[in-house]
Design a protein that fits this description.
The protein is an alpha/beta fold and 268 residues long. The protein has one domain (2-267): TIM Barrel. Helix content is 42%, strand content 13%.
Length: 268
């Protein structure tokens, strides 16, 4: 199992000792939300290289990115040409940051940036397929890919918001720059079966999140993670699995290590 932890769960000034502790408990990668390193405009090559080197000192790599469009509110998948151009330009930058960090996939969640608005369902689908295709080709040129996440209504999703829709979109675009990403929290909150989704996706599944609703820790899980782990094993899943949770507050700081231990025990 290749297990990562989102840097959303880490303090901004995380120490080398703590990173080494994560490594000793079974974490071998850190999934990066880039603005947890620095604001977009400050993510220079030197800043990115220093972050990668810091992780490397603890024998950790960066397999993936998330929060790709955080703060880029004018970027719209289904908006006018200008809004889509903003998205394309930004994701080109994200892909370069990702590959410089060593990552080859980014989680495309961002429900506000893919809002369907007033578009009819079929019109939105056709436009989305065309534009996902453009984005796939764009990021693939940098050695990167976008993993579409099925974001449910609970998080404001209204376009490609189910596992079946993600699979269909990836199949119709048919390009290596676009892949299937599943999240236990998103699929559960959308009313789907994570086990069924995994089995349907099969070898199209390229990235996976262990997550609870609202990105809570795994201390009191509401999702059947054992069932998800069983399904992943059944399809011989061999890509990265990332724990997605927010940095705990106050006295709950040990929830990160608890969650890591739980994930190792459940998914290994």
């Amino acid at each position: 199992m290749k297990l990562a932890l989102s840097n959303l769960a880490l303090k901004a000034d995380v120490s080398q000792d703590y990173l080494r502790t994560l490594r000793s408990r079974g974490i071998s990668g850190i999934e990066v939300a880039p603005t947890r390193i620095a604001p977009w405009e400050e993510l220079t090559n030197d800043v990115v290289d220093r972050y990668r080197a810091t992780l490397a000192e603890a024998d950790l790599v960066v397999p993936s990115l998330q929060a790709l469009l955080f703060g880029i509110n004018d970027a719209q998948l289904l908006g006018d040409e200008a809004a889509f151009d903003i998205m394309a330009t930004h994701l080109k930058k994200v892909a370069r940051i990702g590959t410089r960090l060593g990552a080859n996939v980014g989680v495309f969640g961002s429900p506000r940036n893919r809002d369907r608005g007033n578009l009819e369902v079929q019109a939105a689908w056709e436009l989305g397929r065309e534009r996902f295709g453009k984005l796939a080709r764009l990021v693939a040129d940098e050695g990167f890919s976008l993993g579409i996440e099925p974001v449910p209504e609970f998080y404001g999703g209204n376009f490609v918001d189910t596992s079946d829709a993600v699979i269909q979109m990836v199949d119709e675009v048919g390009h290596e720059g676009l892949c299937v990403h599943f999240d236990t929290g998103c699929i559960s909150l959308g009313g789907g079966s994570i086990s069924d989704a995994i089995q349907t996706a099969g070898d199209r599944l390229a990235h996976f999140h262990i997550a609870e609703p609202k990105l809570a820790s795994l201390r009191n899980p509401s999702i059947d993670h054992a069932d998800a782990a069983k399904a992943l094993k059944a399809i011989n899943y061999d890509h990265w699995i990332a724990i997605e949770m927010l940095e705990p507050a106050g006295t709950a700081s040990d929830d990160v290590l608890f969650s890591v231990d739980y994930a190792v025990k459940t998914y290994a």
